[in-house]
Amino acid sequence: MKISIFGLGYVGAVSCACFAKLGHQIVGVDINEQKVNLIKNGKSPIIEKDLDEYIYEGIQTRKIDATTHVNDAIARTDISIVCVGTPSQINGNINLSYIYKVCNEIAEALKHKNSFHTIVIRSTVVPGTIQQCVQIIEDISGKVHGQDFGVASNPEFLREGTAIEDFWHPPYTVIGTTCPKSEKQLIELYKDIDAPFFTLKPEESEMIKYANNNFHAVKITFANEIGNICKELGVDGHKVMEVVSSDYKLNLSPYYMKPGFAFGGSCLPKDVRGLNYKAKMLDVKVPMLNSLLPSNEYQIQRGLQLVYNTGKRKIGILGFAFKAGTDDLRESPVVELIETLMGKGYELSLYDSNILLSKLMGKNKDYLTGHIPHITKVLKGSIEEVVKESEVIILGNKSPDFAEALKNIQKDKTVIDLVRIDHESVTKDNYVGICW
Question: Quick check: is 83 catalytic?
Fold first, then answer.
């Protein structure tokens, strides 16, 4: 393929070299003549293992060229990959001016081009940037997205020092576009890269890099805070985290990586409080660990706000044990939501088959009658009874019975899903997901 790459910094230079190595015809584009001249002379503009050799080989085989002229680059290529910087502003906002400037220049060049052209944003950008780029290019070029050109998000996952290795072996390749022709081109472009391939909506693709990097920051901070506590206790933090990291069933797995409602139960809240208290006694600051319970409480308040937003007063709740398949109500966040709504005068109807059983026998009988007897007064005997009496239905856990009931709830009743009982559902019409 014929590819122009805008921005010959870290990502751009590596992309030039590796795409050329794959046999594509590359034109590097930059306003910095020194970078362009270095590339044209077979030299890397940055220090990175093996990059000099790759670029030299690309120049020798005539697979790589470089220019400062946008019109020339667009005329000679079918795909443009934008790799310019997106630095932080003082307030933390991302400066997208370089992205938009390149889109302006590409749009001007597209006025004089009759063939289809794909523009790929490889830089890290906030969700919504692709849509803005489409608008800019349409306004300036007079061409139509999906017909004359396409724009796609394609975040990179390159680490300094191992960038070439990361190019060949990324964790996955992500493409986000609404243009089928561009999507087809990019699938072909990456066909020789051995990695899982995901095609997403542009906004989902744009969010991936931010989610990844913030998760990395969370893991580093978590390990440091655990390590600091361990140090004060005379414990080897590396040994502890080595064992923690060996758990691929829960710790390093998708199991807890599903946005939804607050955590609860007999273990997590208790142990978070316990470790925070121990750190306090040791005079060790653990700001991230300290933030866990307030963040969890915010998720409960977010669920309540979804109810308040409906303006309706008759609320049905299906499932309020802290997770499906149990009758454990200890620190159930749905119970906290129920008690708040009851305190505000809402009319509630509740159903949970496991709690009905616990009302008659079992370990939670004393808890139900001794701690939350007011809740037992609004328990109903069936899902149908709750649905019939309610204007708003809240799904509190993933009981299979609730998934089936969801299909039959009338459109005049609002459904608030705290657990994503149906993975394909997103907020639309009378259905509201807490994080989707």
Answer: no
Sheet holding 414-417, edge to edge: 347-351, 314-318, 392-395, 414-417, 431-433
- Which H or E run contains 394? strand 392-395
Reported as a single tens digit per residue, the pLDDT across 23-71 is 999 999 999 999 999 999 999 999 999 999 999 999 999 999 999 999 9
- CATH architecture, range 2-201: 3-Layer(aba) Sandwich (3.40)
| 112-130: pLDDT as tens digits | 999 999 999 999 999 999 9
Q: Which CATH class is domain 295-433?
A: alpha beta
Q: SS3 for 3-68, per residue?
A: EEEECCCHHHHHHHHHHHHCCCEEEEECCCHHHHHHHHCCCCCCCCCCHHHHHHHHHHCCCEEEEC
Please state, in angstroms and rounded to a whole number, the distance separating the CA atoms of residues 127 and 169.
25
316 close to 348: Cβ distance less than 8 angstroms:
yes
Two tokens, residue 352? 């949970």
Q: How do the residues of the chain divide into helix, strand and coil, expressed in percent and rounded to 5?
A: 45, 15, 40
Domain ranges of the chain: 2-201, 295-433
Count Cβ atoms within 10 A of the Cβ of residue 133 and give its class: 0-12 exposed, 13-18 middle, 19 or more buried: buried
Topology match between the domains 2-201 and 295-433: yes
- Structural tokens at position 120: 């790929």
Q: Which of 83, 179, 267, 435 is catalytic?
A: 267
pLDDT along the chain (436 residues), means of 10: 97 97 98 97 94 97 98 98 95 96 98 97 97 98 98 96 96 98 98 96 97 97 98 98 97 95 92 97 98 97 98 96 76 93 96 72 66 83 95 93 86 96 92 96
